[in-house]
Structure formats: structure tokens, C-alpha cells
Amino acid sequence: MYNDALVSKRPYKEAYSHEEAIGIMKEQASNFDPDLFKIFIDNAMGYDLIRKQFLDK
Length: 57
Known about the structure:
- This protein is mainly α and 57 residues long.
- It has one domain.
- It has 3 helices and no strands.
- It is globular, with a radius of gyration of 12 Å.
- The protein starts with a helix and ends with a helix.
């Protein structure tokens, strides 16, 4: 998932916050299927909560 690439730390970059990643994705929304992007945005907070649960382990 594109968002995962943005919010994950990589050897060549620091991780973006969830909010920063969503902002970047919104700026580039024309690159995504509009229907799928709307579904992603509508559920983005839930995805972030799930991701954070796995970071804590």
C-alpha cells in the first residue's frame, strides 16, 4: 500500500506521520482510482489505528 511506504521508516528516509502521508496522497489523488481512493480516505483513520497496534508489539 502506498500509505505504508510513506509512514514507514526506510534506510534512506524518515517516516512521515499519518497526517502527512494522507496530505501527500491527496495532493497526488489524480494518480489513484477515484472510487478506491475515496474508500481509502473514508477508512484511513481505521487503517492507522490497526498499523499502530502492530507497531506497539
